[in-house]
Task: structure prediction
Amino acid sequence: MPAGSSKKRERQYEQIKDNAQEHGVSERRAKEIAARAVNKERARSGESEQASKPSNRDAKSAPQCGGERSHRGSGGPTKEQLYQEAKKKNIDGRSQMNKDELRKAVGR
Result:
């Protein structure tokens, strides 16, 4: 954490770092993820002296987007993401469907 960070940002950093480690990320990578997330939030809220254009360009902050960007990857949404979407829509037979069938069933 940069010197002079608020207690809120320090708690946020620790929470993100701990969560990443719980999901099997190495300590070094977890620290990097946490630092980047906190620094982006600091830039967006005007707490930092400098802010990159991408930090200020996004319409939503990382916690608000909730993984929406993961749907745009090279393979699109994962089978699990498609399954959860099918579950929300109460699509019958979803547990027996493969990824392509789930994609068609949810209309992607």
Residues 67-108 form one domain.
